[in-house]
Amino acid sequence: MRLDVVSIFPGYLAPLDLSLVGKARASGLLDVRVHDLRRWTHDRHHTVDDTPYGGGAGMVMKPEPWGEALDEITASGEPDTAPVLVVPTPSGEPLTQRVAAELSAEPWLLFACGRYEGIDQRVMDHARTRMRVREVSIGDYVLNGGEVAALVVTEAVVRLLPGFMGNPASLTEESHGDEGLLEYPVYTKPPSWRGLDVPEVLFSGNHARIAAWRRARALERTVERRPDLLHRSRRLTLDTLGEVA
Ligand code: SAM
């Protein structure tokens, strides 16, 4: 998968060199290219923002540098290919595991990281005439810029790439999987720590009992912490919810 990220703070994307994402880059599974938006400015001050039409506080990112950046980056791909433009914004569609899975099936993602009050809307409107655009929110709060959101989306997406996880079994039974439940609580050695014991059933070696215990805990946790997920889950029925009662 190819990932391009455009930002006025390319240094913010340094974590893309670390951990599993860094390893995936080193192994060739990921081709990551970080670009400084100011490269596509032409004035002495490398200006990327201006005052908003209609008034109001803050500044808006100018369309010209973005237009040139997207033109040059998209032209650098194979003929007849275009990236999916991913624009982090608090007014975008919520990032979910489903959105991450959809993006992980794409060969090329191009992230446009906004700052200030955001990017002039015409950049996304024009890009839509040439490529698919996904405006994505990582949550109902406001960050200073799109860089951290681009890192979040990247991490959620690339861990779903075949060959990314050393042990792909780690991806099964996770929170927000097919059934839409949260994951059950997990434990490791020692069996007793600060007066707290690992639940007995986990030592039983009885796989069916362990699976039933884990499912009950997953349901219980989801009911307690995220009842909204139960409403969304297509695979849960009233019968299965009865398991937690
Ligand atoms: N004025 C914008 C609004 O109210 O929707 C917020 C702009 S925010 C200060 C600057 C940039 O941070 C946005 O353009 C976007 O790239 C990023 N950002 C902030 N919150 C975000 C979120 N929840 N999800 C994704 N990106 C976010």
From TrEMBL:
Specifically methylates guanosine-37 in various tRNAs. Keywords: Cytoplasm, Methyltransferase, S-adenosyl-L-methionine, Transferase, tRNA processing. It catalyses: guanosine(37) in tRNA + S-adenosyl-L-methionine = N(1)-methylguanosine(37) in tRNA + S-adenosyl-L-homocysteine + H(+). Belongs to the RNA methyltransferase TrmD family. Its main location: cytoplasm. GO terms for molecular function: tRNA (guanine(37)-N1)-methyltransferase activity. Its EC number is 2.1.1.228. S-adenosyl-L-methionine binds at residues 114, 138-143. It is found in: Cytoplasm. This is tRNA (guanine-N(1)-)-methyltransferase. Homodimer. One of its GO terms (biological process) is methylation.
